[in-house]
Amino acid sequence: MFSIPTISLAYLDTNELLRFGSVGEGVQLLQRDLAQLGFNPGPIDGIFGNLTRNTVLRFQQQNNLLVDGIVGRQTKNAIRNLLKINSNNSVVYTVQRGDTLFFLAQRFNTTVSAIMEANGLSNHIIYINQKLLIPSINEISQQQQPSQTQQPQQQQQSSTQQLTRQQQMELEMLELVNQERIRHGLRPLIMDQNIVMVARLKSQDMIVNRYFAHHSPVYGSPFDMMRSFGITFRTAGENLAGSPSVIRAHTNLMNSPGHRANILNPNFTHIGIGIVEGGPYGIMFTQMFVGR
Question: Any transmembrane segments, and where (predicted)?
Fold first, then answer.
């Protein structure tokens, strides 16, 4: 579900609090913008009644705001961010089950970093029913058009900053893992690139030496392997999977009690995910968890 909204600065740029019982043009503009963002506040009549209040509560809940039914600075800023559009090609999208930033970037022909910047995201985690501003490639190029002297250098930086398929899959799996943890009231895990390197080596080792087990003929146990590469931890664990896709590997891990316990272990704080294509399953997955 997506729509193309217009912004109403008349009430967004004031310090006025809109709440139950408020009336006037500010309420009417609020109602219109909520409707354009996919929320139904009832009649656009400028009266802040029960329907409008319930819509504001739903908007606040879905956008991780203070759920108080009052449209103050925090809620206005959230509305502003969702309506901040400089191109008719931009859309406001409602996150559906199974969506990831990578899928959305491909679907709307944009980039993950552009979506994150437009929505003030600090990580790759998104939630069902969350509203996201999806900027177009044209909008990004217009906003960031380099001068002729800067262009070669910026093009070189852009090419080095593009995510590889391996990195995309690893971040996609991190997103799925952290969605499960958040759903169960746990803190999300932090991706540690040093552990990622070790996890990739383990996946590659299983492909090259044709085995599927926690104990490596080359590196020993997962704990020995992590220590040999200088990874420190108080507690640690490892999940292995072989599957043709990230989502299928994640589903299989969550359906296995032991692997699920690692993903939902409250003592783990960091993770390294190493994904290597190849082997009898198509793709080999290693998740290394540590608690610090």
Answer: none
